[in-house]
Amino acid sequence: MNNKLKLANLASPRYTRSMKKKIGEIFNQTTNVSEYFPSNVKKSEPAKAGSKKRPPIKVEYENPPEAKPKKLPKTKRAKPPVNDEWEPEHWQSILTNIYEMRKHSTAPVDEMGCHKCSDPNATASDARFQILIALMLSSQTKDQVTHAAMEKLKSHGCTPANIKLTDNEILGKLIYPVSFWKRKVEYIKKTTDILLAQYAGDIPKTIEDLCKLPGVGPKMGHLCMQIAWGEVSGIGVDTHVHRISNRLGWVRKPTKIPEETRVQLESWLPKDKWVEVNYILVGFGQETCLPLRPKCSECLNKNICPYAKKNGAK
Asked: 183, 187, 120, 176: which is closest to 148 by C-alpha?
């Protein structure tokens, strides 16, 4: 009798409950044999309390799965080294062209600049004092106005001793209409007192001491060292030099104030050009490279000037 018939007979009503139980035990003993599931395999028993757990089986892959790449920490890119030998393109050709445009000396600075404001008949110390006063008056003032004010001051007597005795109101009328004339009156009177007390009426001979005087900045100080003492301490950068240097690309990065322009110019311009660059560029700025509506079409540098090329000068 095969297993199928045995199972069928179990459901037959002719077998009693006890017979069914006995036949079931026999069936379990005889049928729990297989080549895949041998009868002597014991079922796993639950682990007893306190017994050690077997370590997990380490699976080794023939082709292990690719591990996720670790995120590397972000590194800052090193800045390229500063080229200390930097200089603007075509600067020598540009400067040569500016010399050519300035050869006739027809700009206001040529006849009325601060170097023309001192009395040729004055003593050396008084002449230096007049140069300093002219530079103080020239701040944000046209050369024509500065020159006219200096002519009135020289007629009045432009010496330290006489300026000290001059009333502020009279001094204001003499220098009017220079820009900020009221403030400049105070600067001139305070500076005169310092010169009489500390320098015997002469002016300081160093750029550091000049810049300590009321109303005197680096531009005035460097120009005073050049004109009054004949020494080169730095480039005098006014609004013209500042504007033109940025237009020509003579600064590595655009600058906002003249002092920044001075530092960048001095970093590459040969020192033998420091004396003349202010004088040359100021006159160029008064006649050609104007603050508003520059005459780029008339400029000899229109084909190599960055500002002219950008604005489509022809």
From this structure: 176
219 as an active site residue: the answer is yes
Q: Is 71 exposed, middle or buried (0-12, 13-18, 19+ CB in 10 A)?
A: exposed
Residue 220 belongs to what H/E stretch?
helix 218-229
Catalytic residue among 70, 152, 219, 271: 219
Rounded to two decimals, the pTM is: 0.72
Q: Are 182 and 211 in contact (CB under 8 A)?
A: no
> Is-contact 237 274, C-beta < 8 A?
no
Summarised one tens digit per residue, pLDDT across range 100-140 is: 999 999 999 999 999 999 999 999 999 999 999 999 999 99
What whole-number distance in Å separates Cα of residue 43 and Cα of residue 41? 7
- pLDDT tens, 27-53? 455 444 444 344 454 444 555 555 556
